[in-house]
Amino acid sequence: MVTTVQPRQRVSLKDAKSFSAFTNLVKTQERQKEVRQRLTAQLQTTLDVEKLLTIFYKEVQQVVQVGGIVYQMKDSDQLTVNLGQQHTHRCTYQLSSETEAMGEITLSRSKRFIEEELTILEGLFSTLYFPLRNSLAYRSAIMAARKDPLTNTWNRAAMDETLDREVELSKRHNQPMSVLMLDIDHFKAVNDRYGHSAGDLILQETAKIINRASRQTDLLFRYGGEEFLLVLNKTDHNGAQIIAERIRQGLERHAMKCGESNIAVTTSIGVASCRSTDTTETLVGRADKALYQAKISGRNQTRSGE
């Protein structure tokens, strides 16, 4: 039989004095103090959310048997951390302060949780609140610095860091990886005719259409001006061309409304796939050359950089 505790009462900062929840399931008072103090100290050592939850998971296992933890923060980037293995018996807690939500955490294992164990877990959550809140605030600041404020895509600095990593992973694990270089056709003419507010709207709508036509694991960057770069994980050249055409057709069919005007927008796309000899510069260079060929050949088309 599968049991799910979903959810228990909301756990908040008001519960911070619930450390006394350790009961006879912990063999001695000295052991209780040791685990609590170690957990409190270790949670102060990192601002990385996944590392923080890993520390919490390992220490929780010292007092309550837990097979796996799933943490979810439903912000714009859908943060999810999975630790251990997920099982059929679960308990879920909504984490919050008095002013903000801090996500949801689910603990699971192969046998039912008893009431005393749930009480212990709620006490342990008290040690997690302030470190988790600090980690989420730090993450938000880092994310904001890596995002383009107009289109909410990743910016050039984030692209440089990500591409280096993705190219290295592709070569190390012998997995395909491709990039698309996209340029909005005749963008300057749109700005000149309709104004910069219309141009901003087109950039925003274009980013949304690209995201809808790509996969959740793909990464979209604003390369500069009206250019975007899309990184396609585990995607060979044929797969990249299919996605490129889906994006191109999606933009071609979408009339963007600005005030009383419907503005037709198209895009030219260059496609390149990672080779064993590629660096980030050579990979992006081939995509850029393919984009140039698409533009001089009449625009609104996809060209290969192979």
TrEMBL record:
Cofactor: Mg(2+)
SUPFAM superfamilies: Nucleotide cyclase
Record-level GO BP terms: cell adhesion involved in single-species biofilm formation; negative regulation of bacterial-type flagellum-dependent cell motility
Reactions mediated catalytically: 2 GTP = 3',3'-c-di-GMP + 2 diphosphate
GO cellular component terms listed in the entry, alphabetical order: plasma membrane
Signal peptide span: none
Name of a matching Pfam family: GGDEF
Segments forming domain GGDEF: 175-306
Record-listed E.C. numbers: 2.7.7.65
Any one Gene Ontology molecular-function term assigned to this protein's record: diguanylate cyclase activity
SMART domains: GGDEF
Family annotation (PANTHER family): DIGUANYLATE CYCLASE DGCM-RELATED, REGULATORY COMPONENTS OF SENSORY TRANSDUCTION SYSTEM
Name of the protein in question: diguanylate cyclase
